[in-house]
Each structure stands twice: as structure tokens, then as C-alpha cells.
Amino acid sequence: MLQAQKVRLTDFLDERSAYLTQFAEDANAEFDKIGENALKELDEASARIMENLENRMQAFEETAEISKQEIEKNERILEEFEDKIDHDRNEGLFFKNLRQKAPQGQAEAMLERQKIREVTKESAGSKVRRNIYLVLMSLLLVTIGNAVLATPEVEWRKVAALGLIFFGLLAQYIYEQSLSSTTEKTDKKNE
After folding, report:
1. Keywords on this record (predicted)?
2. Domain residue spans of the chain
3. What is the pLDDT of residue 118?
């Protein structure tokens, strides 16, 4: 009798142990699934944000290129107009037509080119672009922190790759900052 109760108790304990083991395995699998889904959603959100930022940067660069082309076109039209005025003014005057263009017009053209270069530098160091770099760097820092702190097994290759991208963005941000500061110094000197 005692032996039969012992066997029943052992069977009951084995059954409960197997049930608890299965329950723990199911809970661990569910936690892993939730973690993987969260990481996947974070990666997808990061990819969407990066794509939106790239689209905005591309649109900005296209706008800058169109503006540059319009400026060049206007310069050509202005030069043609000045040549036509000079020719029309001197039409019929043989000796006056032989003289060279006034150097004053060339100096004005050089000043205009200098202004265009300054505007280009100002647009390169614009606040919008610097803010985009700051957003990207903060997003990378959050992702690196999440990769290091949230998971028990750290994927060092991923962390290293994200770190390299972060330092590249940091270098570009510092370059943009230096461009804008030199432009501000030049503007103050000109005033």
C-alpha cells in the first residue's frame, strides 16, 4: 500500500514537473517571439525614417541643382544681352567696335560668381541639414543602446557597423558646422 502511494506520488510529481517545464518553455518562446517582433518593428521604423530622410535630402539636392542651373542660364542670357547692347551701340562705328569690353563688366561678373559660391556654401551648411544629421545620430545612438542593453547576447558586428555610421555622421556634422561658422565670420567681416 505504501509502495503504491509512493509510486502515485512520484507519478504525480513527474507529471507536474513535466507540465511546469513545458509551461516555462512556452513562456520563454513567447518572450523570445515578442522580443523578435519588437526588434523587427524597430528596424522597420528605422528603415522608414531613413528612407524619408533620404527622400528629403534628395529633393533638397535636386532643388539646389535646379537653382544652380537657373543661375547659370541667367548669367549666359545676361552676357548675351550685354554683347548685343555693345554691338548695337557700336553698329556703324568701325573703330569703336574694335575696342575691348570694359573691364568693369568682367569685375562685376567675378563679384556675381563670388556671391554664388558664398550662397552655395551657405546652403551646404544649412540648419536643416545639420538638424537631420542630429536626428540620424540620435536614432543611431538609441539603436546602439538597444542592441547593447536590451539583448543578453550582443551582436558586436551590428554595433560596430552602427558605430562606424555614427562616427561618419558626426564627422559630416562637424564639417557642416565649420562651413557655417566660416560663412558667418566672412559675413561679419564684410559688414
Report:
1. Coiled coil, Membrane, Transmembrane, Transmembrane helix
2. 125-191
3. 74
